[in-house]
Amino acid sequence: MSSSGGQTAIIGAGVMGETLLSGLVRAGRRVDRLLVGEKRPERARELEERYGVAAVSNVEAATKADTVALVVKPQDMAAVLDEIAHVLRPGQLVVSLAAGITTAFIESRVPEGVAVVRVMPNTPALVDEGMAAISPGSHCDDVHLAEAESLLSSTGRVVRVPEKQQDAVTAISGSGPAYIFFVVESMIEAGVHLGLPRATATELVIQTLYGSATMLRETGTHPVVLREQVTSPGGTTASALRELESHKVRAAFLAAMEAARDRSRQLAEGS
Ligand SMILES: NC(=O)C1=CN([C@@H]2O[C@H](COP(=O)(O)OP(=O)(O)OC[C@H]3O[C@@H](n4cnc5c(N)ncnc54)[C@H](O)[C@@H]3O)[C@@H](O)[C@H]2O)C=CC1
Ligand SMILES: O=C(O)[C@@H]1CCC=N1
């Protein structure tokens, strides 16, 4: 297992592949224990230079590694599995970070006995504040699951969930940072519209987000209670919240996350 000195391969080194790679390096994983398989040669060279890791073919990565992390797009997963399946062996661990792709899909394309774990991470892993949910496949024992947990816990929190919850997890925490950045962007633009310098609006919004997130995590208080504390009777916040309700922002969030969940299900079908 890689935590005890074996090799870990990352196949697909785009945004999320590099996020995982950089987290493992920051967590002290020896770079000579890491391998990268990346289709774009210039991207592979870039990562070799940035981290000192070896970029090799997917087949070499899958042959040498005890743990193979697949971080390609869902639409590329079948092609990668077809390429590496003949070198995978029982006992090896395949960790998939792809939205929608089920452990059953992977298990049907690799040799019997290869352990598979499905993971849904998110990009705050880049600053060691990631949220990852992991689910075991059918040939996965506790050691494999612990190995996947250790891989992801180097960049943030990890929860274990039944695989049937992974499409919902994808809609909430996998895509979640994008919704938050969208809200931040909208608030900054609103600040500029109200006459604030852009730099001031940006600082106000980011610190407000950070402070609010810290209150949620450190006090454990329900968000409704925290919101009521801000909402003075007849005051400014009540006026703003009435607008959000009349523009159906709550309903829009629900519809958005249902759409993300449904898209995750579609990706499982290869579309
Ligand atoms: N970006 C995000 O916030 C999150 C992404 N994911 C999942 O991570 C996976 C990758 O997403 P991104 O990093 O955003 O995409 P990306 O497009 O940035 O990275 C994919 C990488 O895979 C490489 N690739 C494609 N085919 C390959 C092959 N046959 N062999 C080796 N490398 C190959 C591409 O050149 C590219 O560098 C997806 O399955 C996505 O669902 C999961 C959670 C969050
Ligand atoms: O947008 C996507 O499909 C990926 C999965 C979750 C976040 N990004």
Automatic annotation (TrEMBL):
What are the subcellular locations of this protein?
Answer: Cytoplasm
Q: Which residues bind NADP(+)?
A: 11-16
In this chain the Pyrroline-5-carboxylate reductase dimerisation domain maps to 163-267
Q: At the top level of its lineage, which domain of life is listed?
A: Bacteria
Q: Where is the Pyrroline-5-carboxylate reductase catalytic N-terminal domain?
A: 9-100
Report the EC number(s), separated by commas if there are several.
1.5.1.2
User: Sorted alphabetically, which keywords does the UniProt record give?
Assistant: Amino-acid biosynthesis, Cytoplasm, NADP, Oxidoreductase, Proline biosynthesis
- State the taxonomy lineage: Bacteria, Bacillati, Actinomycetota, Actinomycetes, Propionibacteriales
Q: Which GO terms describe its molecular function?
A: pyrroline-5-carboxylate reductase activity
One BP annotation, GO: L-proline biosynthetic process
Q: Which Gene3D superfamilies match?
A: NAD(P)-binding Rossmann-like Domain, ProC C-terminal domain-like
Pathway note: Amino-acid biosynthesis; L-proline biosynthesis; L-proline from L-glutamate 5-semialdehyde: step 1/1
Q: What does this protein do?
A: Catalyzes the reduction of 1-pyrroline-5-carboxylate (PCA) to L-proline.
Q: Which GO terms describe its cellular component?
A: cytoplasm
The record lists NADPH as bound by 58
What InterPro entries is this protein classified in? Answer: 6-PGluconate_DH-like_C_sf, NAD(P)-bd_dom_sf, P5C_Rdtase_cat_N, P5CR-like_CS, P5CR_dimer, Pyrroline-COOH_reductase
Record's catalysed reaction(s):
L-proline + NADP(+) = (S)-1-pyrroline-5-carboxylate + NADPH + 2 H(+); L-proline + NAD(+) = (S)-1-pyrroline-5-carboxylate + NADH + 2 H(+)
The name on file for this protein is: Pyrroline-5-carboxylate reductase
PANTHER family tied to this protein: PYRROLINE-5-CARBOXYLATE REDUCTASE (PTHR11645), PYRROLINE-5-CARBOXYLATE REDUCTASE 3 (PTHR11645:SF0)
Q: What family, per the record? A: Belongs to the pyrroline-5-carboxylate reductase family.
| Enzyme kind, highest EC tier | oxidoreductase
- Major location category of this protein: cytoplasm
